[in-house]
Amino acid sequence: MKKRIILGVDTGSDDAVALMYACMSQEFEVLGVMVSYGNQPLAYTLKNTLKIRELIGGSFKVYKGSAGPLVADLLPGSRLNTDIQSFEGIIDGKAVAVHQKEFDLPEPEGREERTPAVIWLIDTLVNSREPVTLVPVGPLTDIALALKIEPGICNQIQEIVCMGGGVHVANMTPCAEINFYNDPEAAKIVLESGIKTTLITLDATHSSWFGYEEAGRIRKTGSLAGAFAADLLINRIDAANRLGARAVKKSALHDVLAVMYVSHPEVVTEVVRQKCDVDVGHGYARGGLFTDDRASASAENPVYIAYRADKDRMCSLLEQALVRA
Ligand code: RIB
Ligand code: CA
Q1: Which residue ranges does the record assign to the Inosine/uridine-preferring nucleoside hydrolase domain (predicted)?
Q2: Which of 10, 147, 186, 205 is least surrounded, with the fewest CB atoms within 10 Å of its CB?
Q3: Does ligand 1 have an atom closer than 6 angstroms to the CB of 15?
């Protein structure tokens, strides 16, 4: 039985590989893909998503989501309170980016749907006869908006498997992971919704590094998607290293792990049910994910946190999905 999922992406390089896995693994019924700002402004993430759909011959519909966070932009000063990591820049006169603004792929012929993502999400969930798993791998803005507009959708959501947060690992600031930092208020709304939520954190994704060897295995699948995924991975490794964001020449395929967890939970080797919260203050810890391990922490809490993953299992599943049909 295929898992019925709705993806929320900010396509980006690892989002692109996650889309490939979601569509080529034959494990999922992808009800739709919502695209928001995040790794790049919405115009770029949207076109990158449409380009990937055509590269893989995807039939999923694409919906335009939010162009910015709920309220974070209203308080720009809070971005000055800490050291923000950049994932793009100009080095030796050339643009270097972990998430390219424009994928080097043909202009897409297809377009996004006219219905805004949040409206489509609410309508799809309200009318869904079977449970749906939401798989957000970018900012949580659109899901938070939908929950605020129509709280009843909680009953149709089987689980949220979200790439976001980091307990002992951060990447955007010393305390925060990018997706949570981009919209901390949205992350808090989702975590407090009462919906079973599994956070595929940086703790888990940074325990399963991909390197040039894995890029070679992915390229050997022989498909166009495999070749492009290998190029994306190599660019991630090189760009993060050149920008000083990563000392080792390895990369985590964060979003791929989130999608894989839905169909193959064994790919995550350590998951803990933990009460947690996101800092929505405007200081050094803004966007940080913090756990509460006191004995009094509510046992009913619906949040599970992934801490470790199996890179070899991830790579095998990805190879199987991308091998030339
Ligand atoms: O921190 C990693 C997350 O931020 C991934 O989803 C990546 O695509 C970026 O959006
Ligand atoms: Ca992403």
Answers
A1: 5-314
A2: 147
A3: yes
If the chain, 325 residues long, is cut into consecutive pieces of 10 residues, what is the mean pLDDT of each piece?
97 98 97 98 98 97 98 83 84 93 97 98 97 98 98 97 98 96 98 98 98 98 97 96 88 98 98 96 95 85 97 98 83
Question: 180-192 as b/e, with b when 16 or more CB fall inside 10 Å?
Answer: bbbbbbbbbbbbe
- Contacts of residue 169, defined as CB under 8 A and 6 or more positions apart, other chains included, come to 177, 201, 202, 203, 206
The dihedral built from the CA positions of residue 100, 215, 110 and 257, taken in this order, carries a sign that is: negative
The structure's pTM equals 0.97
CA of 261 to the centre of ligand 1 (A): 16
Give yes or no: 254 in active site: yes
Distance between CA atoms of residues 196 and 299, nearest Å:
13
Q: Is the CB of 288 under 6 A from ligand 1?
A: no
CATH number of 3-323: 3.90.245.10
Instruction: Identify the active-site residue in 99, 168, 206, 254.
Output: 254
Residue ID of nearest Cα to ligand 1 atom 10: 138
Enter the DSSP assignment of 251.
E
